[in-house]
Automatic annotation (TrEMBL):
<dbReference type="GO" id="GO:0004613">
    <property type="term" value="F:phosphoenolpyruvate carboxykinase (GTP) activity"/>
</dbReference>
<dbReference type="GO" id="GO:0006094">
    <property type="term" value="P:gluconeogenesis"/>
</dbReference>
<dbReference type="GO" id="GO:0019543">
    <property type="term" value="P:propionate catabolic process"/>
</dbReference>
<dbReference type="InterPro" id="IPR018091">
    <property type="entry name" value="PEP_carboxykin_GTP_CS"/>
</dbReference>
<comment type="subunit">
    <text>Monomer.</text>
</comment>
<keyword id="KW-0479">Metal-binding</keyword>
<protein>
    <recommendedName>
        <fullName>phosphoenolpyruvate carboxykinase (GTP)</fullName>
        <ecNumber>4.1.1.32</ecNumber>
    </recommendedName>
</protein>
<dbReference type="GO" id="GO:0033993">
    <property type="term" value="P:response to lipid"/>
</dbReference>
<dbReference type="InterPro" id="IPR013035">
    <property type="entry name" value="PEP_carboxykinase_C"/>
</dbReference>
<dbReference type="InterPro" id="IPR008209">
    <property type="entry name" value="PEP_carboxykinase_GTP"/>
</dbReference>
<dbReference type="GO" id="GO:0030145">
    <property type="term" value="F:manganese ion binding"/>
</dbReference>
<keyword id="KW-0547">Nucleotide-binding</keyword>
<dbReference type="GO" id="GO:0006107">
    <property type="term" value="P:oxaloacetate metabolic process"/>
</dbReference>
<dbReference type="Pfam" id="PF17297">
    <property type="entry name" value="PEPCK_N"/>
</dbReference>
<dbReference type="GO" id="GO:0071333">
    <property type="term" value="P:cellular response to glucose stimulus"/>
</dbReference>
<keyword id="KW-0464">Manganese</keyword>
<feature type="domain" description="Phosphoenolpyruvate carboxykinase GTP-utilising N-terminal">
    <location>
        <begin position="25"/>
        <end position="252"/>
    </location>
</feature>
Length: 454
């Protein structure tokens, strides 16, 4: 029997009865659990986005940048600025399914596990009633081009309009995804900033609950539950949570990696696609958008962060970028270091925890210091000067649409993916963890390099 909303429950946008039955069941259950004031079913339209942006500006969460078309700055709570690996868990019955076995007395550094039973106890002390006073937004989104044989669909509910606006950039989100989903299964995503509105401080511009933050993944149920953080890495559940952690348990014949994808064309016109695996802040975006200095070479970007790869019927390794936006680290980006990125986020971009200038521009370490303007730091400190802490948080971000990148490859949204010819590995190596464990044979091997990051 299909779950129903409470009698006379306000649906301020969309038609609950028109949702697929499985989606109705999921949403109604979360309404009962979280007790929001009303429901908003997102369609992903430009008009909807404009309305939510205005709402966020009215609430003081977003500030427009006058020098740029449809660009905004958000400042988070200083305690909510990055992914929190210490509070991120994979929840399975068998610990060995989730993380490598470590020697007795040794704490591993490759993920965290908690039993399903224990995590459910933790979540049952958090989610009930957490959305009181807030709107619950419902988003259908596709990771990968809609209709691709390897794309996956998720439904996320959240009480953050900021999350909705960023998910519209980072994923294919909206009513067209709902229509394609039909009665099929989907990944269930629940997110809350973790504090009822009545308990929020009157001057609070960024609701969150960092002391009780937890991000839980249930691979067997294909479900993600995130509580207490509004930061993108913890709240945009299509990204690391879905595209890497949950997706890797869905398709055993598809491989899900923290990789950028780029096309390289040599002076003879021969084009090859390669991927590169580096951890966060190791240069994937800069490499994916590199401007060649060798005459005759051309670089095109397919994706800068995540790759889903598989072997086709002819045995060719292929890859898609499951995302539709860039969620890149801002500091260090400039027309000197990454001119392509700079051109990408000149419009339709949401910046988080960067500084802003008095004439309506963004600023961070690595950009030339502007003349005759005042700078307000990411902490809201006006008239910032060099030496007075950082202007922008080191993990400040830009969230920009992929199709704004001037070197996006023509095949970046091809449902069949692009053929991969080489894989580059690199990274910051934790003590005791080799860069490569084992290769089955030379053909299976990759091009390995160790990038030492100080």
């Amino acid at each position: 029997m299909t779950s129903k909303l409470p009698p006379n429950f306000p649906v301020i946008k969309g038609n609950f009865e028109e949702l697929p039955v499985k989606v109705q069941d999921f949403v109604a259950g979360k309404v009962k659990l979280c007790n929001p004031d009303d429901l908003y079913i997102c369609d992903g339209s430009k008009e909807e986005n404009e309305a939510l942006i205005k709402l966020l500006m009215d609430d003081g969460i977003l500030t427009p940048l006058a020098k740029h078309d449809n660009c905004y700055v958000a400042r988070t709570d200083p305690r909510d600025v990055a992914r929190v690996e210490s509070k991120t868990f994979i929840c399975t019955e068998d610990k060995g399914e989730s993380i490598p076995a470590a020697k007795d007395g040794v704490k591993g550094c490759l993920g965290q596990w908690m039993s399903v039973e224990d995590m459910n106890k933790e979540l049952s002390a958090r989610f009930p009633g957490c959305m009181r006073g807030r709107t619950m937004y419902v988003m259908a989104f596709s990771m990968g081009p809609v209709g691709s044989p390897v794309s996956k669909i998720g439904i996320q509910v959240t009480d953050s309009a900021y999350v909705v606006c960023c998910m519209r950039i980072m994923t294919r989100m909206g009513s067209h995804v709902l229509k394609f989903l039909g009665d099929n299964d989907f990944v269930k995503c629940l997110h809350s900033v973790g504090i009822p509105k009545a308990e929020q401080a009157p001057d609070c511009k960024w609701p969150c609950n960092p002391d009780r933050t937890v991000i839980a993944h249930f691979p067997h149920d294909r479900e993600i539950k995130s509580f207490g953080s509004g930061y993108g890495g913890n709240s945009l559940l299509g990204k690391k949570c879905f595209a890497l952690r949950i997706a890797s348990t869905i398709g055993r014949n598809v491989f899900f990696f923290h990789l950028k994808i780029m096309g390289l064309t040599n002076p003879k016109g021969e084009k090859k696609y390669i991927t590169a695996a580096f951890p966060s802040a190791c240069g994937k975006t800069n490499l994916a958008m590199i401007t060649p200095t060798i005459p005759g070479w051309k670089v095109e970007c397919v994706g800068d962060d995540i790759a889903w790869m598989w072997f086709d019927e002819e045995g060719q390794l292929r890859a898609i970028n499951p995302e539709s936006g860039f969620f890149g680290v801002a500091p260090g980006s400039s027309y000197l270091t990454n001119p392509v990125a700079m051109k990408t986020f000149q419009k339709d971009t949401i910046f988080t925890n960067v500084a802003e200038t008095s004439d309506g521009d963004f600023f961070w370490e690595g950009l030339p210091l502007p003349d005759h303007v005042e700078i307000t730091s990411w902490l809201g400190v006006k008239n910032w000067k060099p030496g007075n802490n950082k202007a922008a948080h080191p993990n400040s971000r830009f969230c920009a649409p992929s199709d704004h990148c001037p070197i996006m490859d023509k095949a970046w949204e091809d449902p069949k993916g692009v053929p991969i010819s080489a894989i580059l590995f690199g990274g910051r190596r934790p003590q005791g963890v080799p860069l490569v464990y084992q290769s089955f044979n030379w053909q299976h091997g990759g091009v390995c390099c160790l990038i030492h990051v100080i």
